[in-house]
Amino acid sequence: MSSQAPAPRIPVPAAAARMPKAVDRVQVTRGLACLLLVLFHVVGGKADDGLRIADASLGRQILDVLLYVRMPLFAFISGYVYTLKPLDPARPGPFLQGKLRRLALPLLTATTIFYLTALARAPQPPADAVLGLLHAYVFSYEIYWFLQAMLLIFLLLPLLERFLLHSAAGCAAAVLAGFLLTVPAEPIDFLSINGAAFLAPFFFIGIAARRFIGTLSPTWTLALLAVLIVAFALHIHNVATLPPHMGARRGTWLSLLIGGITPLLLVAHVPRIALLARIGHASFAIFLFHIFFIVAMRMLLRAIGIEDFAIHLLAGLAAAIAGPMLLETLLAKGKATRRLFLGLR
């Protein structure tokens, strides 16, 4: 038995003990992605949707410019965060079960609620309604194509991890393969295969960013920023000069450059804004439910005679962010609701 006295405890300065934890740039980037997604759905993707702004308007062109950023940001972050708890290629079962619970259950629940809500507004014969719901479960349906596509990518990960994603060259090959499949896969909306092909390159870039790229040096940051500025300039020119919606298409080299470089730079250098990080923490609930709050706020404002564009825009954004965050808090309290709606244990 040792007779040594225990080492003295080093006192921690009170200021250091009170020092807040640094805001996570990944969550800030995710929060920014949420804002871009919500903005798109508040304004509307078409001239006869949302706030009904014309296809040739500046606002519509801005939304088209952001097409190469919105969903690629989510896909990149999914790949980046996946590397924190990757699957074991020799034992992929637990990982896949977790993803099915985390994504498939909320996907089915949210799809059903969305479909039934739409059905209440535009009734159909019972047989057609049932067939429509079944179709929504297995084909791209409204905003939920993203979850179908990501689930498909996760289901392919055991093979990809075994043969490709363990090396930088393999990740590059996966990025290139997904990119080259984007245009050919566009007509295939079964299980959102088209969406999976579109998102896959950015998901793999997210994996590579954490596994093989690491911290960006100042030289690399400046080089990537220069490429991004040129790519955005060309993209803006296309959107401004081509017919509506033709200047922002999936599967172009500009989409790959912008969608791949933007999140790399954001994760490395975005300002640590606590509010955006908080929004990022609630990104899953915001994605699932923001559309319900957007529609409800729009109906409320119109019911009381408010048609001002700015009020609709700001109120819609606020409702679409705050509403799902509050709903997530409520749903997390019940065992059944947290599993069915949020995919949590």
Automatic annotation (TrEMBL):
The lineage of its organism: Bacteria, Pseudomonadati, Pseudomonadota, Alphaproteobacteria, Sphingomonadales. It is found in: Cell membrane. Pfam families: Acyl_transf_3 (PF01757). Residues 26-327 form the Acyltransferase domain. It is a multi-pass membrane protein. It comes from the Bacteria. GO terms for biological process: enterobacterial common antigen biosynthetic process. One of its GO terms (cellular component) is plasma membrane. One of its GO terms (molecular function) is O-acetyltransferase activity. The keyword Disulfide bond does not apply. It comes from Rhizorhabdus histidinilytica. Its main location: membrane. This is Surface polysaccharide O-acyltransferase, integral membrane enzyme.
